[in-house]
Amino acid sequence: DQQVKQNSPSLSVQEGRISILNCDYTNSMFDYFLWYKKYPAEGPTFLISISSIKDKNEDGRFTVFLNKSAKHLSLHIVPSQPGDSAVYFCAASKPGTYKYIFGTGTRLKVLA
Amino acid sequence: DGGITQSPKYLFRKEGQNVTLSCEQNLNHDAMYWYRQDPGQGLRLIYYSQIVNDFQKGDIAEGYSVSREKKESFPLTVTSAQKNPTAFYLCASRPQGSDTQYFGPGTRLTVL
Q1: A21 reaches B (C-beta below 8 A)
Q2: For residue range A49-103, what is the model confidence (pLDDT) as tens digits?
Q3: Interface contact A20, partner B, CB < 8 A
């Protein structure tokens, strides 16, 4: 049972445009969400996170939006750059567990 | 400088042999995690440890074993009971009170 889903395996965007990566979850107990970026043959690196008490968190070019009623979050990258080309994973956790469920990832390709 | 190291980067083993993957961190983090990643799939949790001398099974612990005798080290043994061990293995650590995980570069295990 996939509790965290990233339904788009891949996404291509032109340089300078907005990239929107989506993530859906099924467990309403999740209260903390994170996005990681991963290059091939490397470990993921943390990008941005959001707590369920917020609906938006921004860090430079990266913004995460959370819609609790729809159990949906999205990562916006503006403007997209070729160096953003990577696989992006969303992850979720329940309160106090520090155990994280990852989605299957979306491969973003930013075209120059 | 601080970080997480995993060795070796590539590992080959014959079917039926046990193999131990190393994970060391000098970040003084309390928690450590082991994940595996298969093509087209997200990161799946094998084992995690919130504190020295304690660890819990993740979602796919069968065929794996761990130990946490030192804060800095969390080795993973892939036993011959693991039916499909060929995968990319990622180790992560997390400081107390934070949800952000810091990942190592990974070990690609191939069973011949």
Answers
A1: no
A2: 999 999 999 999 999 999 999 999 999 999 999 999 999 999 999 998 899 999 9
A3: no
